[in-house]
Specification:
Layout: H1 2-19, H2 40-50, H3 53-57, E1 80-83, E2 86-88, H4 93-98, H5 102-111, H6 120-125, H7 128-140, E3 162-164
Parallel strand pairs: 1-3
Antiparallel strand pairs: 1-2
Helix pairs in contact: 2-7, 5-7
This protein binds heme C.
Heme C binds next to helix 3 and helix 4.
Length: 172
């Protein structure tokens, strides 16, 4: 009896597999929201969380395994990334959005070719709705924190803490 049930179950599963394939839609449309959430702000929060913005723009986030409280997210970091491009600092994004309109933010993410290791190509590839959701989330955070230091030209040794991203070793 048990065996018969199992066989029946197996046949049912095969039947499902052959004629009832779940419909999977993969769309590259950039005018549709890619994440469903209660509000644009929630979408933006989710995008910040999964696309790694905190790794650089929140001091201590990556090394602390993401335990930094949200109250401290995206306030920038005073530790520079030193490489062939000079030294770049992840800005305080709360200040960035305070100083620009949503349309200017979208324009900046679309067009800016800034310094590494900021993933400019990745944010550029985001759908416009996602770019707007990012802005709305960051704008919903209280204005707080100091500005990050200004970028330095190649070769200038920073006076802040810095991470050396200069390629080294064989083949560098
Ligand atoms: C690997 C580190 C890193 C990650 C991850 C990262 N950033 Fe950045 N970000 C930087 C650095 C460094 C700069 C400064 C780059 C420059 O001067 O061009 C920067 C600059 C920016 C700026 C310009 C701010 C201003 O005031 O000029 C924006 C906006 C920004 N990042 C948004 C984001 C968003 C949104 C995410 C997540 C999707 C993100 N960043 C992820 C490192 C990072």
């Amino acid at each position: 009896m048990i065996v018969r049930h199992l066989v029946l179950l197996g046949a049912f599963a095969v039947g499902l597999g052959s004629c009832q394939q779940p419909e999977v839609k993969i769309s590259a449309a950039t005018d549709q929201p890619h994440v469903a959430a209660a509000s644009d702000i929630e979408v933006g929060r989710y995008l910040v969380l999964v696309s790694g913005c905190n790794d650089c723009h929140t001091a201590g986030y990556a090394v602390g395994d993401g335990r930094t409280p949200e109250a401290d997210w995206l306030k920038g970091a005073a530790e520079g990334f030193y490489g062939p491009w000079g030294t770049s600092y992840p800005q305080n994004l709360r200040r960035t959005v305070a100083g620009m309109s949503e349309d200017d933010w979208v324009e900046m993410l679309n067009t800016r070719a800034g310094l590494p290791p900021m993933p400019w190509p990745s944010v550029r590839a985001m759908a416009e709705t996602d770019k707007r959701a990012l802005y709305r989330y960051i704008k919903s955070l209280p204005f707080d924190g100091d500005p990050a230091p200004a970028a330095l030209p190649p070769g200038q040794v920073p006076t802040t803490a810095w991470v050396d991203m200069t390629p080294k070793g064989p083949g560098a």
